[in-house]
Amino acid sequence: MKLSLVVAAGVHTGKVIPVSVTEFKIGRDPDCQLRPASPSISKKHCAIVTKEEKVFVIDFGSTNGTFVNNEQVAGERELRNDDYFKAGPLEFKIKIEGVVQAKPAPQPVAVAANDASTVTSHDDADAMAMLMLTDGEDPSPSSSGNSPTAEASIPDGTTIMDVPAVPGEKKDDKKSKGFNADTAGAAASILSKYMRRPRT
């Protein structure tokens, strides 16, 4: 977060005063960061304080008061970007930059357990694995009512490996089915990752 005071009145109008400390004190006391030579400013007039990405002004019981948007501050008040801030005869515009607004978390979508029209990402992965196991054939249930599954096609504990072809070896006749070695290797790799993923 970048915080600064922009002089809003007087001969220094437009001058930017950066606020780089968490407690920026204004007053005639040598301990203050901004020390105007004006008797209208108390020795310890007020302070601009940064707390957890928020900015506040605190009046120290000054003689001539501290004002935000023409309202006198009693104790502490939060400051926002473009607020007008006045300490005695000094007038400033507050500039607050780089504050990240937290986005609300997305709301979960409720899905009925028996809602067949909703397909989850888990179902999509199952359908993709089924398609690879059936060599592109329709994985829908057959007329007998049986449906092939990944578990039925590949025994537990099986490791699928993509073995490169030996130079000079006859090409696989999978090409006659519209497949090439790269497609088969990619399918095997995806299926291997699918089989290793945790079940929920």
How does this model look, in words?
- The chain is an alpha+beta fold.
- Helix content is 16%, strand content 24%.
- It contains three helices and ten strands, in the order ββββββββββααα.
- The protein has helices at residues 121-133, 150-153, 181-196, and strands spanning 2-7, 16-19, 23-26, 46-51, 54-59, 66-68, 71-72, 76-79, 84-87, 90-97.
- The strands form two sheets. It has a six-stranded antiparallel beta sheet, with no helix packed on it. Strands 3-4-5-8 form a four-stranded antiparallel beta sheet, with no helix packed on it.
- A hairpin with a 2-residue loop joins strand 9 (84-87) and strand 10.
- The model is unreliable at 111-121 and 134-152 (pLDDT under 50).
- Residues 24-73 form the FHA domain.
Task: Sum this structure up briefly.
The chain has 200 residues and is an alpha+beta fold.
Query: What is the mean pLDDT?
Result: 74
The N- and C-terminal alpha carbons lie at a distance of 42 Å
Summarize the main sheet: 6 strands, antiparallel
Q: What is the approximate shape?
A: rod-shaped
Order of helices and strands: EEEEEEEEEEHHH
Strand content: 15-25%
Count of β-strands: 10
Strand order of the largest sheet: 2-1-10-9-6-7
Count of individual helical segments: 3
Helix content: 10-25%
Radius of gyration, in Å, reads 35 Å
